[in-house]
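From the pipeline queue, job 12 of 40. The input is one protein chain; the requested action is below.

Action: predict structure.
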Amino acid sequence: MLTHPTLKDTAVKALVAEATSAPSMHNAQPWHFDYARAARTLLLSADLDRAMPLADPTTRGLHLGCGAALLTLRAAAAHAGHRTVTTLLPAPHSPTILASVRLDVPHEPLDVGLSALQPAIAVRHTSRFPFTERRIPDVLRAALVEAAAREGAQLAFLTTPHREAVLDLVLHAEGYDRMDDGREVEQRRWTRDASAADTADGIPEDAFGPAKRGGAAPMRDFAGRRTVPGRAYAEFEQRPQLASLSTTRDGPADWLRAGQALQRVLLLATRQGLVSSFATQALEWPDLRWLLRDPRSGTGCVQMILRLGYGPDGPRTPRRPVDEVLTITP
């Protein structure tokens, strides 16, 4: 029987620190990790205190963020040489326990593909800046589609008619958001003034990006109804390269798979020199989300709209200290 030396707590903390670099809705970081030394197992749980009841009443978006953190943890573990087994929703009677990751499982193959993505973890940041009009090559598009498929999701780059329809839906959603006082307050909770230097979550003003003066890119304006002094204006791309990420079904396990697929796509895109942002506005209104489906097939449950392309990197956004999101037990 194979035995493994005790995994040091510092190594566990390093893995979780990488996992928490994943994107999450409004950078709320709605996760908690528990590591059991004896079982060499990490549990990932949802932190419902960081949920958004108005914009994300089903916690679908929360699950996507936690799924992205799960994929990042798997990539970090693989790069560190750990052979892992991941189980989604391992405790049916405790729905906030989202996944377990057992480390150093005998005879389990090392995930070399995930290991190769680890260098992108520290580099990937959401970019809310204008991208160029340079088209993503077909071979790279195909590789991103394959990356999503490996995690059980479907990625599809939007063709012109579908893209225009999606952009229209995003505009409708932005109008709904602006008229909804509750959602404005909820978003404001997760934005940070430039003077808030000690913040550990949310979107700081320097990550808002410039205000859109023109262009078709579907940019969420985290400033909401307020004005940010000194904020620049910019022209965004006229033909944004958008992709939809979808799953066949639409339950918590599917959301976690979608989150993992999302992060696998993002890490591969980052390694290949792409930058990215998200267009979640229409996803947050059930009637509009239904209309985001591909009109040709009419199937699938859209989980994310991605904007991909070439442009400036986004600034680093804050992260909570590992000691706040990790508990280690014997």
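Job complete. The radius of gyration is 19 Å.
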